[in-house]
Design a protein that fits this description.
mainly alpha; 6 helices; elongated
Length: 151
């Protein structure tokens, strides 16, 4: 009977490879966030072990990781997506107001309704921009980390 022993480092290395090749974008970003980005005092030793695994990545895995990170960097650029989203939102609001104007007298609609509508849009846009900004910073952080070990 052959007993296979695997170290924590080997398990993490396999997990890292699996995340780079197979994980969805959100899952991959969550992995980076939890394993490399959030440094709490109790995770420093684990972080150092994870860095060792990054240093030992083969050139194919490094190339794949960097390509994926470059893609995510472009995909998570919030301003590009927000331009499209803003345009669509303005179009929908304009069409809706035109429709409502034909049915309802605008003088009867309370200014509070307008305020709540604008506030809701502001909160949605702010959330989307902040999420996109955080995701992009994760991508740039991890990309820099890999590049620092594999030039």
């Amino acid at each position: 009977m052959v007993v296979q022993t695997t170290t924590v480092e080997e398990n993490f290395s396999d997990t890292l490879e699996s995340k780079i090749y197979n994980a969805g974008d959100r899952e991959f970003l969550k992995f980076i966030d939890e394993e490399f980005y959030k440094l709490k005092s109790e995770k420093v030793i684990k972080y150092k072990e994870n860095i060792k695994c990054l240093k030992q990545m083969d050139s194919d895995l490094v190339s794949t990781a960097l390509a994926r990170l470059s893609y995510l960097e472009e995909a998570k650029d919030g301003l590009k997506g927000m331009t499209f989203f803003s345009g669509i939102t303005i179009l929908v609001i304009t069409a809706y107001l035109g429709f409502v104007e034909s049915i309802v007298d605008f003088e009867k609609i309370s200014p509070v309704v307008y305020f709540i509508s604008v506030l809701t849009l502001y909160i949605i846009f702010t959330f989307l921009i902040n999420t996109s900004r955080h995701d992009k910073s994760l991508v740039l952080f991890f990309k820099s980390l890999i590049n620092s070990f594999h030039k």
